[in-house]
Amino acid sequence: MAAMPAEPGERLPGERVILGGATVVLSMLPIGLLVAPAPLAVLVLRHGLASGIVAAVLSGLFASILTQSPLILAQVLLALALGIALGEALREGFSLRQALAVGSVVVFITTLLLMFLIQRVVGMSPIDIVATFWQEALRSAAGSDTAAQAFVDAQIAAMRAVLPASLILGSVGLTVVDYGLTRWLARKLPGEKDAVAPLPEFSRWRFPRWTAALYVAGRVAEVLLLARLTGFVQMALINVVLILGFLMTIQGLAVGWFYLQRAKVSKALRWLIVLGVLFFLQPVASLLFLVAGVIDALLDLRRARRSDAEVQGGS
């Protein structure tokens, strides 16, 4: 059941200024801009939409003045739209899935708008900018090496082909991260302990069986039909398989996390093990997690569905 809309409660002295100031400061940092929606969402949740809009506009103005670039103003405002959306969704009592869906759609749309603005202002798409950078770097490092140039061209073509999947996965991933930070920050403040629903424990993350089945069918279709397909159909198949494969890889990571947790490995050591495997054993690690995710989705390695059925049966 969705939580009730947030009601006024106990507030810290100067809380509005603190949350707004954190949004402004984070918005002026390249990496900070990715997490700036979190304090902004809490500001909207606790003090209303008007306070959030003022903080977002001030953040854009300060960042634009600091960099002397009007484009930065648009970038900051578009990035902070996620914070406005999450805060307002939580304030209206949206469920976890609804809030994440709203946030993901907002990030996807604002990213497309930002790419359009960059192309209009700079005269090049972001992918073309990256391609030019790589080509210049390659030219200075390898001269006229045709093999290296062909490799770069292939990478640029691949980037263009999977752009839709990258945008979708990036939008959902950023929304999940900022939602988690929003909950963490809200719980640090008085009166909001249960205002933001928790994300499921990572060791229990799983996707429907049809996700794995559709991924396997898509991979088979790629092997058998990709060379014969062209245009939109080919691109759609590539992107759908990429998205489903990423979801299965995440589920495989959750399986590994589950068994490390069951073995009573400390959280810090779990992080070290997972990051070490991902960093030092690529691409084998990704393949192993992908296979584990598919098997778990089909065969329920963690007995997660059985546990859920028992809980529902006992309730």
Overview of this structure, please?
With 315 residues, this protein is mainly α. The chain folds into two domains: 145 residues, Arp2/3 complex 21 kDa subunit ARPC3 (Orthogonal Bundle); 113 residues, no CATH class. The relative contact order is 0.08.
Topology, element by element:
Layout: H1 15-27, H2 32-35, H3 37-47, H4 49-67, H5 70-91, H6 96-122, H7 126-142, H8 146-161, H9 163-187, H10 209-225, H11 231-262, H12 267-280, H13 284-299, H14 304-314
CATH architecture of the largest domain: Orthogonal Bundle
Structural class: mainly alpha
Estimate the mean pLDDT confidence: 83
Sum up the overall morphology in one term.
globular
Question: What is the CATH C-level name of the largest domain?
Answer: Mainly Alpha
Extract low-pLDDT stretches: 1-8, 308-315
Count, helices: 14
Instruction: Find the count of extended strands (DSSP E, 2+ residues).
Output: 0
Helicity, in percent? over 70%
From the N-terminal CA to the C-terminal CA, the straight-line distance is 15 Å
Q: Could you tell me the radius of gyration in angstroms?
A: 22 Å
Number of domains: 2
Give the ordered list of helices and strands. Answer: HHHHHHHHHHHHHH
Determine the CATH topology of the largest domain.
Answer: Arp2/3 complex 21 kDa subunit ARPC3
Indicate the proportion of strand residues.
under 5%
Largest sheet report: none
